Amino acid sequence: MILAIPKELGEREKRVALTPETVGKLSDKGLDIRIETAAGMPANYLDETYQEAGASIVSDRNELFSEADILISIQTPPQKDLGQMKAGSILICFLWALQNEETVNLLKEKEITALGMDAIPRISRAQNMDALSSMSSIAGYKAALMGANKLDRYMPMMMTAAGTIAPAKVLVLGAGVAGLQAIATAKRLGAVVEAFDIRPTVKEQVESLGATFVEVPDLDEESETEGGYAKELAEDEQERQRQVIHEHAKKSDIIITTALIPGKPAPLLITKEMVQDMHAGAVIVDLAAEQGGNCELTEAGTTQSINEVNIVGPLNIPSMLAYHASQMYSKNMMALLNHLLEDGEPTFDFEDEITLNTTITHQGEIISPMLKNN
Ligand code: NAD
């Protein structure tokens, strides 16, 4: 069974799908692992380390794709490469199937079995495969560092001979995986942290990290789907939320926004007027930049200064910590492979919730209930 890892071609992409440590563990299970020349280099994993772990280095990309039984990557490879894959082979990567109909059709026509790392269900049993959580956690951590780095003030309280310095005030909007890690990191840096999320269950988690939960009165208690994701707020609730955030934004040094609603544009939480009322030198780090932004003024991929407020709209943050992001993704990938492989052969049991939800196409059919019900 040939397992292949190509070099990532995406702009800003420095991660690699398998690290040498995981290659070693999978080689021991009898897999023939092939990796494209210098695929790990951007994340500081060297070809010789892969070789020592048991992988062969392949310089011909076409050969890598055409001979693979299982091909794993971070981002979906370009269609030209997918066109080289043989019928019955398996592709595992972030597929974002709902947004990539053309690619899904190609995979179906070519009878490639495609699994989406973004489609792994958020259930306890699949926690060790949950690459979305791994990457969100990195994004939250880095967002707090980016905010601190851009700020012209200290984060912690300082008692110095030149007087006492007050700690920075950080407001985190959206306390899912990324938001909670942003809170934890800002707290470790010594800031005073407040956070808000529309899911009431989050309050306890926010408080357990030592942050204060911001209350917005009269929000619908049923703001959470069965899968634990947020529902879109009604227009009057959104307006009430913005009024509360406005008051807290005026006093904040850093705002980190992470709010997302699956399948919808990112909710607008910070308006132009709120930015105008923030103090000079304040920083907004908008982790939802890729999905349209939680701040009205965010421009994805840029840092701007508007009314002396710095608005950072970062893209592909996990790639900025490529070494550990690759390590975490690689471990998530290995857990999924272990779930699928029986005596070294992939098996697809669609009675199993993880396999069913993660498999997008198989033998020329759409399997994913998410796609079928869309
Ligand atoms: P996400 O990235 O989809 O959204 C980020 C956060 O934004 C969420 O907490 C959401 O409630 C919040 N949000 C949405 N609209 C908002 C608004 N208008 N104002 C403020 N906040 C808003 O979420 P995620 O981090 O991927 O987590 C989604 C869910 O999955 C959570 O319930 C999480 O606990 C759960 N989860 C479970 C597991 C597991 O059990 N294995 C693993 C990971 C995540």
Write the SSE topology.
Elements: E1 2-5, H1 20-27, E2 32-36, H2 47-53, E3 56-58, H3 61-67, E4 70-75, H4 79-82, E5 90-94, H5 101-109, E6 113-116, H6 131-150, E7 158-160, E8 163-165, E9 169-173, H7 177-188, E10 192-196, H8 202-208, E11 212-213, H9 235-251, E12 254-257, H10 272-276, E13 283-286, E14 303-306, E15 309-312, H11 322-340, E16 341-342, E17 345-346, H12 353-358, E18 359-362, E19 365-366, H13 369-372
Parallel strand pairs: 1-2, 1-4, 2-3, 4-5, 5-6, 9-10, 9-12, 10-11, 12-13, 13-15
Antiparallel strand pairs: 6-18, 7-8, 14-15, 16-17, 18-19
Helix pairs in contact: 1-2, 6-7, 6-11
The protein binds nicotinamide-adenine-dinucleotide (NAD).
Summarize the entry for a quick read.
The protein is 33% helix and 19% strand. It is α/β, with parallel strands linked by helices and 374 residues long.
Question: End-to-end distance, in Å?
Answer: 34 Å
Biggest sheet, in brief?
8 strands, mixed
Strand order of the biggest β-sheet: 3-2-1-4-5-6-18-19
The count of β-strands is 19
Classification by helices and strands: alpha/beta
- The CATH homologous superfamily of the largest domain is called NAD(P)-binding Rossmann-like Domain
Which small-molecule species are bound to the chains here?
nicotinamide-adenine-dinucleotide
Q: What count of domains describes the coordinates?
A: 2
Function: The transhydrogenation between NADH and NADP is coupled to respiration and ATP hydrolysis and functions as a proton pump across the membrane.
Domain Alanine dehydrogenase/pyridine nucleotide transhydrogenase NAD(H)-binding: 148-313
Family: Belongs to the AlaDH/PNT family.
Enzyme class: translocase
